[in-house]
Amino acid sequence: MSSVLRPATTDHGPSAASKYRPISSHLAITPPVSVVIPAMNEAENLPYVFKTLPDWIHEVVLVDGNSTDDTVEVARGLWPDVKVVEQRGKGKGDALITGFEACSGDIIVMVDADGSADGNEIVSYVSALVSGADFAKGSRFANGGGTDDMTFIRKLGNWALCTIVNRKFGARYTDLCYGYNAFWRHCLDKISLDCTGFEIETLINIRVVKAGLKVQEIPSHEYLRIHGTSNLRAVRDGIRVLKVILKERSNRRELRRQEHHSPMLDTVQPASARLDSVQGEVS
């Protein structure tokens, strides 16, 4: 039985695309999709990363963190139209923010350059977005997800931090510190990002919830880094993530306090006080 390509409809405004992009046997989309890949000395891993990227995506934005190997040359050889952006600052957060600014697509997908993410899963993220979600969050612990690259300590830390975020911000995440996510470009207007390190992923997850955006988790499998060593440090990075959580919680309380003590509210007198004032003027 043949399937009919059905254009997806959304309420996110007119798309820049001029044609439908078939992404599966039963789904076609008009929104252009940008994939952001922050990379520093990942020349050996990029062939595995690019091999799984679907050919229907609009653009690949590679953010080069001043690599000393052939990362840029390899990327251009694998994807001739790749948009290479030089990172001026340091840290994964800075790289992602730089990449987001360079994107021209309506949908933005975050993919790591170490080969741990399967680009074939992008179709699931995009499907969730065109079906109504604002933010498609990858989860290694949702039903159907998995990981080959987390120690017991990291799993425990991720669970603890995820539990704190769920309780403090009313989220329902099953995974917190995972960098495979996708979202509509308009979300950036509601979650201003000001974090330069690895904890950027946690900051995004928290601010998405605070902004009231619709989130859908996508089961995702994380594979082992293919070449090289990871810069992740469980204790150090866990502390940095916790600091972000506490800061966002503190900011939320401060906002509530300011709203409660708004000058406009302070100038409104209760009815009894206004009545006393009027009676005083009459007498």
Instruction: Point out poorly predicted stretches.
Output: 1-17, 262-283
In spatial order, strands of the major sheet run 5-4-3-6-9-7-10
Query: H/E series, N to C?
Result: EEEHEHEHEHEEHEHEEHHH
Number of helices, counting only DSSP H or I runs of 4 residues or more: 9
Radius of gyration of CA atoms, rounded to a whole number: 23 Å
Quickly give the structural class. Answer: alpha/beta
Give the total of beta strands: 11
Q: Label the overall shape.
A: globular
- Give the biggest beta sheet: 7 strands, mixed
Arithmetic mean pLDDT: 84
**What helical percentage do the residues reach?**
25-40%
Percent of residues in β-strands:
15-25%
Question: Kindly, what is the distance between the CA atoms of the first and last residues, rounded to a whole number of angstroms?
Answer: 89 Å
What is the fold's blueprint, element by element?
Elements: E1 21-24, E2 27-29, E3 33-39, H1 46-51, E4 59-64, H2 71-78, E5 83-86, H3 92-102, E6 107-110, H4 122-130, E7 135-139, E8 146-147, H5 152-169, E9 181-184, H6 200-210, E10 215-219, E11 221-222, H7 234-260, H8 263-266, H9 271-282
Parallel strand pairs: 3-4, 3-6, 4-5, 7-10, 8-11
Antiparallel strand pairs: 1-2, 6-9, 7-9
Helix pairs in contact: 5-7, 6-7
